Amino acid sequence: MHATHTSQWGRALVTSGQETSLKVGPVRLEISRDADTWYYRIVDDSDVTKWRTVIGCDAMTVRPAFPDLPVIIVPTEPVCVLRSALYSFVLPVDPWVQLVAERKGRPPEVVLDIPIARLHRVWFGSSEHGEPAYQAPFDPFAPGESPDGVHISVQIQNSSPSALWFEQIAVRVNELDVGTLDHELVSNPVTIVFKGTDQLSTVNVGSFAAGKKPTVVTPRRVTGGNDLIRKSFVFLRELTG
């Protein structure tokens, strides 16, 4: 087969009898087709999967997605947000790769959904009321820098009568959209309002800013209301006391 190469997310431009290759991080996705039958396989540093066949497909799109579980941020040292203060940062999250089969008159179907980076699975919260999640490095970047990944604007607002000390924070990326803006991957802004150690946090998933509205390429995995009440922090006293 004749091979072509692309570094862009989007529609896989493959005609019958051709093959294309897309590299995202350490993962390479190879796609080929023959009439209405499509084939794909995954190649990484240590393994090559068998070719997999998809029948009845008109087109295929490669798109970025957030992980299927929340992401837990663990700062290198405890963080203190004083009362009435705002703490804002941008979190880059490594995207997953989705391969989406498209058919005329039918909704798209995801046939491949894999991470591009090794994930460290953890448990967030108490043994009785916790949930599974992935741990991410705490690496908010300085203005002007643009590390790889989907960029999430996060704001923590301390509306409690005391200082907020925390050692872990949950960002529920599976409830966010992935979009593109100025050749970058971005998501909805997130605001977490802390009300006190004995209360749940209010989590607001915002809309994209007017005038700078990205194009949504991958909708959120979990659909919920914009205002959610969730446990978002593991406090310093919970880990030391």
Question: Can you give a write-up of this model?
Answer:
The chain is mainly β and about 240 residues long. It folds into two domains: about 1-65, no CATH class; about 65-95 and about 115-240, no CATH class. About 0% of the residues lie in helices and about 55% in strands. The chain has one helix and 23 strands. It has one helix spanning about 235-240, and strands at about 1-5, 10, 20-25, 25-35, 35-45, 50-55, 60-65, 70-75, 80, 85-95, 95-105, 105-115, 120-125, 130-135, 150-160, 165-170, 180, 185, 190-195, 200-205, 215-220, 225-230, 235. Strands 10, 15, 17, 18, 19, 20, 21 and 22 form an eight-stranded mixed beta sheet that branches. Strands 8, 9, 13, 14, 16 and 23 form a six-stranded mixed beta sheet that branches. Strands 1-3-4-5-6 form a five-stranded mixed beta sheet, with no helix packed on it. The protein starts with a strand and ends with a helix. The model is unreliable at about 1-5 (pLDDT under 50).
